[in-house]
Amino acid sequence: xxxxxxxxxxxxxxxxxDKPVAAICxxxxxxxxxxxxxxxxxxxxxxxxxxxANAGANVVDEEVVVDGHLITSRGPDDLxxxxxxxxxxxxxxxxxxxxxxxxFI
Length: 105
Hints:
There is one protein chain. By secondary structure, the protein is α/β, with parallel strands linked by helices. The protein has a single domain, classed as Rossmann fold, CATH 3.40.50.880. Helices cover 37% and strands 17% of the residues. The chain has 4 helices and 6 strands; from the N terminus they run αβαβαβββαβ. It has helices at residues 5-16, 28-33, 46-54, 79-90, and strands spanning 21-24, 41-42, 58-59, 64-67, 70-73, 103-104. β2 (41-42), α3 (46-54) and β3 (58-59) form a beta-alpha-beta unit. The protein starts with a helix and ends with a strand. Mean pLDDT is 88; it is low at 96-101.
């Protein structure tokens, strides 16, 4: 998926529009290829973390990381926290405006 130009263009458009983007496990690779990770605080599956760092992300090892409208998580073991944070964001907590769309990568 990360090499699909439509997928990377879609992800980049959501990031640039400041709409929620939720990426778990290996999905942040799509964001790397979309050139959307530089300066972001993120997490991902262990094999992806070096690539994130090399692309300019600040990588942390936490179950869920929120940076603006970008939510990242490490993998299936963190799914409960990831989904909880995503639902809370879409519901408008703690953000002032509820976005009209969410991109799941």
